[in-house]
Structure formats: C-alpha cells, structure tokens
Write a structure and sequence with these properties.
By secondary structure, the protein is an alpha+beta fold. The chain is built from four helices and 13 strands.
C-alpha cells in the first residue's frame, strides 16, 4: 500500500486527459503511456476494461472504435488527481461529496447522483465513487467522457466497489 505523500500526482484536464492517458487512446497506446507491456488483468463486461497493478483501471468505448473512455484511480494506491486544489482520491466520501457540491455551487457545474449514491460533475466528466479500504470508505474518482456520464447504461455499470453505500442524512434539530 502507498501512503498519500508517496502517490504519483496526475494532472487532470477534463474531457482531454488524466495523467499520461488521453481519452480516445487505444489499449496499446495506454500500455505505452503507463510504461508497461500489458495490463495486470483484462475484465469482461459491458465495455472493455483493463486493470493495472498501480491502482489504475481503464475502460474503452467499444461502440466508438475502442478508444479510452474512462480512467478510475484507486482510493488508496492509485495516483492522485485534484480539482481546484482538492484531492479526489482517498478522502472521506461525505467530505468529498461536500467538496464537489461546494465546487459546483461556486462554478455552476452540472450535478448528478447515481443510484449507488455516487456524485458526478457531468460537465467535467468526474464521477466520485466510494471504495472500501480496510474498515473505512474512501473516495475513488472516475474520469469519464461526457457521453458515458450522459448514458445511464454506461454510468451505472462503471466500477462499483462492494455494496453500495446508503447515506442517512440527519436534519438539524
């Protein structure tokens, strides 16, 4: 496991790239960009998925020639990406959601909650999911092409981590 201070820091450009990965890349180009010969694991499902040993999962749009459509960073061991100076991976999910809500309010971003209680800033292509790490839940960012966030089919089939979290919101007394 990697401590937060030891994480690789990836620059994120919404709709364009995450770290060395550019949306639309072929699987071969992704392997070259990540400096590996091949993914750690290939997964079947509603899209082509490759998992890499460094906490990076990538997903390809099979309907659009197989180009890179989503990058998921592990909550604990994956690279770190930021939005307006705020870390996206490895945070308390409720605090991370509040951070996104505040950002959306300030910048006019489009919000979307998914059935598993994940929060997306659809115009930025950011979906924040929760991942179980030991006894705690941590935030796990997914960077997605806009078409996938607009599509319930793709959005709701992107990687879930364990059982969906149900939040109970307490109203102030």
């Amino acid at each position: 496991m990697t401590a937060n201070s030891e994480r690789e820091r990836w620059e994120w450009m919404p709709g364009v790239s995450v770290g060395p990965l550019r949306f639309g890349m072929s699987p071969a180009d992704v392997a070259v960009a990540l400096q590996v010969l091949a993914p750690h694991e290939q997964v079947g499902g509603p899209y082509s998925q490759e998992n890499f040993a460094d906490g990076v999962k990538v997903f390809y749009d099979d309907d659009d020639g197989g180009g890179l459509a989503c990058v998921s960073l592990d909550a604990f061991v994956g690279p770190q990406a930021f939005l307006a100076g705020g870390a996206l991976a490895g945070r308390d999910p409720e605090q991370a959601h509040q951070f996104l809500l505040d950002h959306a309010s300030e910048h006019g971003n489009c919000l979307l909650y998914t059935p598993d209680d994940s929060l997306a800033l659809t115009d930025l292509g950011l979906l924040l999911r929760a991942q179980q790490v030991g006894d705690v839940l941590l935030s796990r960012p997914l960077f997605v092409i806009e078409e996938w966030l607009d599509s319930e089919y793709y959005r709701d089939r992107l990687p879930l981590e364990g059982v969906p979290v149900v939040h109970v919101w307490n109203e102030p007394s």
